[in-house]
Amino acid sequence: MNREGKVNSNTKSNYFKVLEKIIASRIANGVTQINMANHLNLSEGGYFKVEKGKTKLDLERLLEILEFLKISPEEFFKDIA
To answer: What pLDDT score does 80 carry?
Structure first.
């Protein structure tokens, strides 16, 4: 965020890179949106909104996703930003 409280374009770009990487990792691991939604105690539509950026992804949920996909945070973020 900048001083005016607005999210700068680089932050937004990195956020969508995170979402894209979650999707790619989920698919690569053979995990469906339904599997992920069930693991996170969300409806399929609720999880779809997370992947599309309609619902903000918080740190706790991100860590749950990475744990389910068996990816360390270090490995996940090494190509982002």
So the answer is: 80
Is the distance from CB of 1 to CB of 7 less than 8 angstroms?
yes
State which residues of the chain have pLDDT below 70: 1-7, 81
Among candidate residues 51, 68, 60, 64, the one with its CA nearest the CA of residue 15: 51
Q: pTM, whole model, 2 decimals?
A: 0.85
Residues 6+ apart with CB under 8 A from 55: 46, 49
CB 33 within 8 A of CB 43: no
Q: Which residue has the tokens 């105690």?
A: 41
Considering only CA atoms, which of 74, 14, 16, 66 is closest in space to residue 36? 66
Task: Report whether 4 contacts 71 (CB < 8 A).
Answer: no
Closest by CA to 61, choosing from 45, 41, 81, 76, is: 41
Q: Which tokens is 71 given?
A: 């990816």
